[in-house]
Description:
This protein is mainly alpha-helical. The protein is 79% helix and 0% strand.
Amino acid sequence: MSLSVFLALLLAALMHASWNALIKVRIDRFASISITSLGMGLVAVPVLPFVAVPPLHIWPWIVGSVIIHIGYRLFLVRAYAAGDLAQTYPLARGTAPLMTAIGAMVLNGEVPSHLAMIGIALLSCGTILMSLRGGLLIGSINRAAVGYALLTAVLISAYTLTDGNGARSASTATSYAAWLFVCNGFTATLIGFGARGKALLSVIALEWKVGLLAGILSATSYWIAMWAMTKAPIASVAALREISILFALVISVLALGEKATRWRVAAAACIVAGAVALRLG
């Protein structure tokens, strides 16, 4: 992986952690995620006149991604409702890169180098270990939370592979990303109003600034990831994105006043080691 791609993904990971921190402190996470998706779409609208309209063979990738993202948001919110956010989210994010690596090998024939595989494994282990916040055992999470978290991981892997291949097939990653964000934002808004009706309007009125900021961060972060997947193996990009958990630890300690326990420090060291291995691999 080149230095430019590596540094760009670190920036994307920081943005990813930042928008998730914004969602974490919201009371109504379903509405917040819906508004964030809307924000991503609104940010992408001004870009549309400057990028090519995707040809017909690209639209199945975009439609497939939108459908997968619907399921992703559904199971993510249910995972948050069933278990502690600090445990279920890292569990979902930590297992997704391993699934993505397997998927990329089967579907794309991309076999990471031995050092890259070590990096993917270290990042995944570190991310999962981060879910042991405060020394709690994974087994203390109820089965429903584990189930929803793992289903979320499957969908993360699915949309990563879909968008990686879609961005590679499109004229540019920017064209693919802009149209995806607009379609996804429109769909998420329709579903949000279908589920909440006019009540969603009151949430938008209160949260639109946060939603727009989260949308900007999320859109930029994921656009960088899709661009990176046109330059580097999908599995390596997917794994390195999870260094966002390390940034989330820093944000939680400095901004939210949470403690950096021994478990979390050990997890951070594992994540850093994984990132170094990916860079060298």
